[in-house]
Design goal:
There is one protein chain. This protein folds into two domains: 158 residues, Penicillin-binding protein 2a (Domain 2), CATH 3.90.1310.10; 326 residues, DD-peptidase/beta-lactamase superfamily (Beta-lactamase), CATH 3.40.710.10. It has 19 helices and 19 strands. The strands form six sheets. Strands 2, 3, 4, 5 and 8 form a five-stranded mixed sheet that branches. It is a single-pass membrane protein.
Length: 568
């Protein structure tokens, strides 16, 4: 039927979906379902390890476990360098809060202005790491961490601390901000002290915060502990006395070395100027050098006993041999050599007592051309001491090739050669130790070394008693006298050398000595650099330091007095 105005479609007019189209749609659905199932199987079976690795890469971390640096101690175990735990705060600039309130809180906690903090964040904006503040104490760092600001993290490290400060600064040395040795023993034994870091696997969230400590991969191995030969009691005392002398004489600096005569161990080594290794903000570069080991200088008259030992080894000379030093001056190769005055006839002992350059010249010129050079070489001069200390000097010992008489003469009284204070002290151990020179050691030794026999026991004994005469009332070394003890030693005064030649008004004042004479225990060398308050002779400037230091040292070491009047 039709309605007025139009007609409606009949059932016959609606075409049914063809069977082909129906099957196509069902097929599409089934294919899609198969692909989905296949992908699920692929993800859970075939790509399972890959996906797990990707997840682990985003959550699992291998972290380094810092190994604390080994301790440096004195011979008696007192700490000279120790490592303390510190915290370094760092940030991911891309995660830090952007609002000024939170940034202001962080800046105040760090002790900086908001402008400085914003400038630093801007500078590292393209990076994921920047330090906020390094090497804070855990107590100072914890309040900042408690703020729980996004992007702020902690890194646990170690900081080196030096309990004895400037007293042992040049010997012990320092580490840099990454705790690696930069100077002194810290540098020389860095690999031994540093230790080996460990590793651990940890689980962290997407912001890098620790969720769980999973397992240890490799244990951290702490650095080894290093025992130096230094006796800290003697070190403090030596530094104090040296500083007092430098201040008293308005000197540029000074050096003191005290060695065990029997073992060669360095019991004290002080240098001025110095510095505070715990606060290097106002560091004087001159204070970094361990002058006792790294600096060489012309030693002057303290070399005369060592040169004379070469003569006393021959049958031609004995302590009683008389040498004519008149008229107090002589010409050698167009050079004039002078004594303080005309001493006339002097025995070999008298030559040392009056420190006669003429006497030493006449003796040296009667010896074989290389006799003095050979003796100096046997005593370790012109060679590295072998302590392992960075930058140790070899000094200067010119090769005896076609030498003039003036060169042979000047070498016999301590010019034309250069030594360090450590080399000089080591050379004097031969006189103190029956002719055996002991190589110097900065480390505590388990047993005394063999030493090297460089002169006969007879010559060493003769020299020891000849030097004792110098440390007597009214003699040149009288100010080195130690109450209760017999002391032997030699003074020296030498002009400083610069690039322009010898200075006319700048001197080094020296004293090298041995105590006690009965059974020598210590050898000590004192050098005061450029005393400017009037006195500059070794007997007036360096000898008193020797007397005070050695006197206190012998008492601290419980060495019995050996002067007859002191014993009775």
């Amino acid at each position: 039927m039709s309605a007025k105005g139009g007609s409606s479609p009949t059932r016959a007019q609606v075409a049914p979906m063809g069977s082909g189209r129906y099957r196509f749609m069902v097929g599409v659905v089934l294919v899609a379902l198969a692909v989905l199932v296949g992908r699920i199987v692929d993800l859970h079976v075939i790509d399972r390890l890959f996906l797990q690795g990707q997840g682990d890469a985003r959550t699992l971390r291998v972290e380094t476990i810092d190994a604390h640096r080994g301790m440096v101690t004195s011979r008696h175990g007192e700490p000279l360098a120790i490592s303390t735990p510190v915290v370094s705060l760092w940030a991911n600039p891309q995660e830090l809060p952007s609002d000024d309130i939170q940034r202001m809180m962080l800046a105040r906690a760090l002790g900086m202005s908001l402008a400085d903090l914003n400038a630093r964040i801007e500078r590292y904006a393209e990076h994921e790491f920047m330090y906020l503040r390094r090497r804070m104490t855990p107590a100072d760092a914890q309040p900042i961490l408690d703020m729980r600001l996004p992007g702020v993290y902690a890194q646990h490290e170690y900081k080196r601390y030096y309990p004895s400060g400037e007293v042992t600064a040049q010997l012990v040395g320092v580490t840099n901000i990454d705790d690696k040795g930069q100077e002194g023993v810290e540098l020389a034994y860095n690999s031994f002290l540093a230790g080996q870091p460990g590793k651990r696997r940890v689980l962290k969230d997407r912001k890098g915060r620790l969720v769980r400590d999973l397992h240890l991969i490799k244990e951290a191995k702490p650095g080894g502990n290093l025992a130096l030969s230094i006796d800290l009691r003697l070190q403090y005392m030596a530094y104090r006395e040296l500083k007092a002398a430098v201040d008293e004489h308005n000197a540029d600096g000074g050096t003191l070395v005290m060695m065990d005569a029997k073992t060669g161990e360095v019991l004290a080594m002080a240098n001025l100027p110095s510095y505070n290794p715990n606060n290097r903000a106002e560091l004087d570069a001159n204070g970094l050098r361990n002058q006792a080991i790294t600096d060489a200088f012309e030693p002057g008259s303290v070399m005369k006993p060592l040169a004379m030992s070469a003569a006393l080894e021959t049958a031609r000379f004995s302590p009683e041999t008389v040498i004519d030093t008149s008229p107090g001056w002589m010409r050698v190769d167009n050079f004039t050599i002078r004594d303080f005055r005309n001493y006339g006839d002097l025995s070999m002992a008298g030559i040392l007592l009056h420190s006669s350059n003429i006497g030493m010249t006449r003796v040296a010129l009667q010896l074989e051309e290389d006799a003095v050079w050979n003796r100096y070489h046997e005593l370790g001069l012109g060679q590295a001491p072998g302590t392992g200390f960075p930058g140790e000097t070899t000094g200067s010992l010119p090769t005896p090739f076609d030498w003039s008489d003036s060169k042979r003469a000047s070498m016999s009284y301590g010019y034309g050669v250069a030594v360090s204070a450590l080399q000089l002290a080591s050379a004097y151990t031969a006189i103190a130790n029956e002719g055996k020179r002991m190589p110097p050691s900065l480390l505590k030794l388990p047993s005394p070394p063999q030493g090297e026999q460089v002169m006969s026991p007879r010559v060493a004994d003769d020299l020891l008693h000849m030097l004792e005469a110098i440390v007597q009332p009214n003699a040149g070394g009288s100010r080195a006298v130690v109450p209760g003890y017999r002391v032997a030693g030699k003074t020296g005064t030498v002009r400083k050398v610069t690039q322009t030649g010898y200075q006319q008004t700048a001197y080094r004042s020296l004293f090298a000595g041995i105590a006690p004479v009965t059974d020598p225990r210590i050898v000590t060398v004192v050098m005061i650099d450029n005393a400017k308050n009037g006195d500059y002779y070794g007997g007036l400037v360096a000898a008193p330091v020797f007397g005070r230091v050695v006197g206190k040292a012998l008492r601290l070491l419980d060495v019995l007095p050996d002067k007859k009047e002191a014993v009775e």
